[in-house]
Amino acid sequence: MSSVSILPPGSTLGMLGGGQLGGFFTEAALRMGYKVAVWDPDPLAPAKRYSTYSIDAPFDDEEQIIFFSNTVDAISLEWENVPSRLVTKLEQTHLVKPGSKSLKLAQNRIEEKTFLSSNKFPVTPHEFVLNAQEFKGIKIPKPWIVKTATLGYDGHGQWKIENDTQERELLKAIHGESWVIESVVDYRLEMSVIIVSNGKGNLVAYPPTENTHQGGILRMSISPPRLKTEIQNKAIDLAKEVIGCLDDAGVFCVEMFLTATDEILVNEIAPRPHNSGHHTIDAFSISQYESQVRALVGLPVIEPDFLNASVLLNILGEEADILSDTDHKFELYSDSSARLYMYGKQSVRPRRKMGHVMFLGGSVEDLISKAENTLMALKN
Ligand code: AIR
Fold it and tell me: Reduced to 3 states, what is the DSSP secondary structure of residue 23?
């Protein structure tokens, strides 16, 4: 599609996927005067709490594809598992940001790694395994991180394999798939950079966040990161180069490792806002979700102002029930620096992202200890 001028408030934006990321997009779009049509097969998807139009059909429902196309003026997405076939189809008639090219890359780790290595971006040592038999020929020594090539997110489809027994167990459990096998890198920390691209060469970055994970799922995200400015700038430059190479528009996240020798390796690219960017709602003048709206409707994509330090704590699985237990006296409820976000998910599944707490202001060290205290209280 050729580019258009600014889509005015009052227009309807289509959102493929209706999770928390789509929910925050929808809130930002509503504030800016837009209507949003949220398409998610789950009738209770969080973003539908705010949507103007809501579609519950599977993503291949021809009737709903027509309804959606007739209703929306431009389209974005909020998770990688939206079928790329649908996006390719919608692209023929609508502006879709990001487009199917970036989506396909993010949907297949083999394609993603190939894109990164062929563009000479630093990545962890890896091998591709196209069927279970090929596990025998892997040259990378254990320990490995095994990742399914497709349909993985939030630690799903990922295993740490440290010895031959674990490899045998894994081979019993997995089925006809393809995988990326990565060396376990001795890294100092994980970080991510959110990039906004207008698709015409203008790329804007949010400063990096420092991220901690548990069981492959983001637990805390710290901003500003406890890193030298030089390393932060290096991470921003690298993220801009990676997203520049994609040649697409929208909000993207580049996840990275910082090694013990201060080398930065690119781990993953997400063609959407990111969990580690929730803080941009409270801690920056323009959130990643407003940036997603801006990039989509053709408003200028601009550098956000940093407002205050923040630490995000994700609320996972049954922790959501513990947090709402009225007998429990959580300090965070009497702490004016703590903002609670619950996504309104109806079913609690183990380790599912149910909400988050954003600790704001003051020093990062104080915010981290508040987040750690909350985590401890959730375990008791
Ligand atoms: N998401 C997308 N990629 C990674 C994550 N965490 C967000 C999106 C998606 C939601 O998580 O907002 O819709 C899916 O969450 P769940 O709990 O239904 O699996």
Answer: helix
